[in-house]
Design goal:
single chain, 14 helices, flat
């Protein structure tokens, strides 16, 4: 730069020069941003093709009359919200109640048993032997197909099955119990199978959450004389809340989608008298009859109910976590 120029002019030129260099560096750095979009593009492409487009088409189908009677196809004919009116007049609320009851009956013992096991396996004071073996055993039912599990229980609890034979020989009953003709028994069997299949997965998730808690907190509590129950309710449970909420929401979504076990166990009829018919079994009935309009309406209602319940559970349970008393 020419030193004969005034100092103030040279200073301004230096500023312009530095600003230009910074601008060029920024431009050079931003050239790599496109690679980020390149790597996340597959997810959005797959999501659009396999989730977003089917979701929109399902909602569109719910507004049309579109079904088959024998070899005759009726529709598609736009009928607005008529399909929604039809499903609410066709006992969908009863099927929703059946689904909720069976989910609660299976989830409550599942979460209690899983919490107990996860605390036992992660407690450094107990020093349980053969932990890896027991962890493998409790997770094994999760690897069995639900259809195979349902067929096993269907055989065990059939009128002439092994369970009735054992109870007769032991003298607990005088005649065979018809388990699948009793609403309480069918609900109990479905809930029991769901509990057995998923408690291992829930235990692993809760164990991971507990192992993420700083061990020094437990040691300090023990030194201060806290009992195991006080440690659990004052330290473990509050710090485990985010994982606990995740388990509840995913279990709730799975419960609303309950299908394979009651479908096989009740031969798709929801016996007795449709008292074990779930929402997805009701949806499957319409799909089997090629009634895509009604099936679309049931799918949309199920989607909305799942979203509302999941958001409600998250809001209620995380409210205390985000705003603890005294904060």
């Amino acid at each position: 730069m020419d030193t004969r120029l005034p100092w103030w002019f040279r200073f301004n030129l230096d500023e312009v020069y530095m600003a230009e260099k910074i601008k060029q560096k920024k431009l050079k750095a931003t050239k790599y941003d496109k690679w980020g979009y390149f790597f996340i593009a597959p997810f959005f492409i797959v999501f659009t093709i396999f989730s977003l487009v089917p979701l929109i088409s399902t909602f569109a189908n719910s507004l049309f009359e579109n079904y088959r009677v024998g070899l005759k196809i009726v529709g598609p004919k736009f009928i607005g919200l008529a399909n929604y009116k039809n499903i609410f007049s066709d006992n969908i609320l009863v099927y929703a109640k059946n689904t909720l009851v069976m989910w609660i009956l299976g989830f409550l013992p599942q979460i209690i048993f899983s919490l107990l096991l996860s605390v036992w396996f992660t407690n450094t004071e107990l020093r349980l032997q053969f932990q890896q073996f027991f962890k493998t055993v409790i997770y094994m039912p999760n690897l069995i197909m639900a259809s195979a599990f349902a067929m096993l229980f269907f055989t065990l609890f059939s009128p002439e099955g092994p369970m009735n034979s054992i109870l007769l020989k032991a003298g607990f009953i005088t005649e065979n119990i018809r388990f699948f003709e009793s609403t309480k028994w069918v609900h109990t069997l479905v809930a029991g199978m769901n509990c057995l299949m998923w408690y291992g997965n829930t235990t692993i998730l809760l164990m991971a959450g507990i192992m993420g808690i700083d061990e020094s907190l437990f040691e300090a509590a023990r030194i201060d004389g806290a009992s195991p129950l006080q440690i659990f309710f004052k330290i473990t449970l509050p710090l485990l809340l985010p994982i606990f909420v995740y388990v509840i929401i995913t279990s709730l979504i799975g419960g609303i989608q309950m299908f394979d076990i009651p479908q096989i166990l009740t031969n798709g009829e929801g016996v007795p008298d449709r008292t074990s018919m779930t929402i997805i079994m009701y949806l499957n009935k319409h799909l089997a009859n090629k009634n895509y309009g009604m099936a679309g309406a049931v799918s949309v209602v199920t989607f909305l109910v799942t979203g509302i319940l999941s958001f409600s559970v998250y809001s209620i349970t995380m409210k205390q976590f985000k705003n603890p008393k005294g904060a």
